[in-house]
Amino acid sequence: MIVCVAVVGHENNPLYLQSFTEADDALKLHHIVHSSLDVIDERVNNPKKSGSTLNETFLGLLYPTENYKVYGYLTNTKVKLIMVMTDLDVKDADVRSEVPCCIRRCCLQPLPCSREDDYLQKLWTKSW
After folding, report:
1. Biggest alpha carbon distance in the chain?
2. Which fold is adopted by the domain 2-126?
């Protein structure tokens, strides 16, 4: 289950951060997201140590905590998409396709759409 989604700008400025848990966990999740920025910077600046190429946008598992797993995605404009999950048994291959899709749904569709827009929304979602 996704508990937090964040979009961070190229200068590590938070553009969007949404947690889907109780208010008590929100501060902890914000701290986890900000801590993951150091891991992203390390992977981008040292690609030989992390094993990923510069063309790779999915950064994979950034780091696990006791209760969460943090995944990252880097766009070609250096905007970072971060997702915190409680599913500890999920595989990287399953998350790879879900990170941009989940963040797009959370950020661009924060409110439920009407029935008239439902058809257009499905078409738009399938085109990605």
Report:
1. 50
2. Beta-Lactamase (3.30.450)
Beta bridge partners of residue 83, listed in sequence order = 5, 71
- What tokens does 2 get? 């996704």
Residue 84: Cβ-neighbour burial (10 angstroms; 0-12, 13-18, 19+): buried
Task: Give the distance, in angstroms, between the CA of residue 36 and the centroid of all CA atoms in the same chain.
Answer: 11
- Predicted TM-score (pTM) of the model is 0.73
CA-wise closest residue to 16 among 122, 108, 117 = 108
User: Which residue stretches of the chain have pLDDT < 70?
Assistant: 47-56, 97, 99-100, 102-128
Phi first, then psi: give them for residue 52, nearest 5 degrees. -95, 155
* pLDDT on residue 115: 43
3 state DSSP class of 113: coil
Residue 86 contacts residue 12 (beta carbons within 8 Å): no
Q: Who contacts 95 (Cβ-Cβ below 8 Å, separation ≥6)?
A: 60, 61, 71, 83, 85
